[in-house]
Specification:
It contains 4 helices and 14 strands. It is α+β, with helices and mostly antiparallel strands. The strands form 3 sheets. The protein has a 7-stranded mixed beta sheet with strand order 1-5-6-7-3-4-2, with helices on one face.
């Protein structure tokens, strides 16, 4: 893992007033924890820029003087709630034979077929993963190959296991996945199928219309026969009156 050097000085005075004075001077109070007593020191705030404001992970070489140099990792950091300035940092001293825990950035490599061919969308569920390992085995980053990810596929921490370090996450933790996007959704118009019920309704309607037509025709014939009978009756009466 890459290392950054931070030069600092041991604190002669401790307490809130001393810490406030250091911050007003553009310095950051720090504590280095390790096997022995904690070491209180301070350093220029600007010197932490490459350590804090980066997605990369680093070990830190703390130089207090020629005789006091320590290899460590940043364990905790505090920011001012309003100004977002660094107000305190905790470091943990590294030992060759002791495992440490640290957040390692996740880097993706390759291109997912589910995105290129199926129009899916790649999501990154974890940009960093916490691992535990000996200092010599700490990786700069965790490489994740996405060249086989199809639509709906996921990569879990269980797929990334390594002999040099241990993930401090459950095996079911999703690191990245290809999800369905609007571009990958094919909208199909529903087909109109004639159901038995529709067919039966149509047949019933046709039968009803036919029956009504026959009835009207029959009524019309009866009405015509009645008028014809009345006409003949009138002609007969007219002939009798002439006689």
């Amino acid at each position: 893992m890459k290392s950054i050097t931070i030069k600092g000085s041991k604190r002669k005075e401790l307490g809130k007033s001393s810490s406030k004075k250091l911050r007003n001077e553009g310095k950051v109070p720090c504590i280095l924890y390790g096997d022995g007593e904690p070491i209180h020191f301070y350093s220029n705030e600007i010197d932490f820029k490459k350590l804090v404001y980066t997605p990369d992970a680093h070990t830190v070489n703390i130089e207090l003087d020629e005789k006091n140099q320590f290899n460590a990792i940043m364990q905790d950091i505090q920011f001012h709630p309003l100004t977002d300035r660094i107000i305190h940092i905790d470091f943990y001293q590294l030992s060759e034979d002791k495992e440490v825990s640290i957040d390692i950035p996740v880097r993706l490599e390759g291109q997912a077929p589910g995105v290129l061919n199926s129009g899916g969308m790649l999501t990154r569920n974890k940009r960093k993963l916490k691992v535990r390992a000996l200092p010599k085995n700490l990786p700069d980053s965790i490489l994740v190959d996405i060249s086989n990810l199809e639509l709906g596929d996921k990569i879990y921490t269980s797929n990334l296991k390594n002999d040099h370090y241990t993930f401090l996450h459950s095996d079911s933790t999703v690191v990245t996945q290809v999800i369905t996007s609007r571009a990958s959704m094919i909208l199909e118009e529903p087909e109109t199928e004639e159901t038995e019920e529709t067919s039966e309704t149509s047949e019933t309607s046709e039968t009803s219309q036919t029956g009504d037509g026959d009835k009207k025709a029959e009524d019309g014939n009866k009405e015509g026969e009645k008028k014809e009978g009345e006409k003949k009756e009138g002609e007969k009466k007219e002939g009798d009156s002439k006689d």
